[in-house]
Amino acid sequence: MALFWVVILLVIIQRLVELRVARRNEQRLLAKGAFEAGKSHYPYMVAMHAAFFFSLMGEVLLAHRPLSPFWIPLLAIFLAMQVLRVWCLSSLGEFWNTKIIILPGANVVRRGPYKWLRHPNYVIVTTELLVLPLLFQAYFTAILFAALNAWMLSVRIPAEERALRKATDYTDRFGSARTGRR
Prior knowledge:
By secondary structure, the protein is mainly alpha-helical. It has a domain at 44-101 and 108-168. 68% of the residues lie in helices and 3% in strands. It contains six helices and two strands. The chain has helices spanning 2-31, 42-62, 71-92, 120-135, 139-167, 170-174; strands at residues 35-37, 100-102. A two-stranded antiparallel ribbon has the order 1-2. Helix 2 (42-62) packs antiparallel against helix 5 (139-167). The protein is elongated, with a radius of gyration of 17 Å. The chain crosses the membrane at residues 43-63, 70-87, 130-152. It comes from Bhargavaea ullalensis.
């Protein structure tokens, strides 16, 4: 149970620090003329992520879920995702945010993991939403939030890509939405 509290507290602290960084980046970008896209779904995304932690804590504590027998590889995957998360944040620099904040005319970042994937941070978040519950055998939370996250990304990624195509060099860098050609 000690590992559970250490992991949960560290992740919550990490998320709070990230929200502070996101707010700072948002203010700087808005001052440069940026705009926010996808405002309507953002509160639902925040609620989903908050509910994830409550669900995970509730399931582990109330259902007395033990640590997974596969906890070492699961923890290793989770820790690897944290390294990749920092790589994503540092690669995007001032453009990283929890919101979709678009600076018109900006060049889309194509360094770090963004050199190979369009949305590596979403891959990381998806992995975390599966691995954390599996680490503590919270299968209900894993299944529920895998489904909710899939729904959220089906809304968020198209909203982000539309905004990027409209206001940046995204199409030149990644090709058209329908064909994927450059």
